[in-house]
Request: fold
Amino acid sequence: MTKPDPNRVLRRLPIVVGGLGAILLLINRILTPELTESQSRGDVLGVILSAVLILTGLIWQQVQPRSPEAVELIGEEGFILSEDLPEAVKTELAWASHLILTNTVTRSLVVVYQGKVLLRRGILGSKSEVIPGAIFNRVIEKQQPVYLVALNLYPGRIEFDYLPENTQGVICQPISNQGVMILGANAPRSYTKQDENWIAGIADKLAVTLQQISVDAS
Reply:
């Protein structure tokens, strides 16, 4: 279900005001038995102002950017952590995922490290297993994030079958060269550059914490 555009009223306001002004001028002209020269000039100015307002409203309808339409992601809300993690790592993952889910448009979050799913949080997809695809592997190899601004436009979306099926946008953020944090949004083109930088900073912080897994395993 899509949410209404919050700027819809603002874009239509000049049209409504201009149209109302024109109607009032017309009524005033009809009800006035005899017009003076000054009143005629005032009517002309009123008509011009009404026309300008209507034209402005029509232009706003075309050029003013609309907020991305958000949808309700399909799935159940949940919070699943790998049970065999150290408590410090669990705490860090819980903290990081909470910050991302509450401060960005992210609605679904998955953390994969060393081939293992460590965390799933937010709106969960029906599939829990993460099979790395071409995009996932490229993020690991290049150590660069990938932002799919409108997921339904990309053929590679099929590899994100572990996210809700109607996920609108995805960021794949590397966690050092060992893992990837996958973030799913409920609206296309909704992450800002500031969001991307902030998410990258959290991923760097997680990379330091998750090194404990490698150290403990050795």
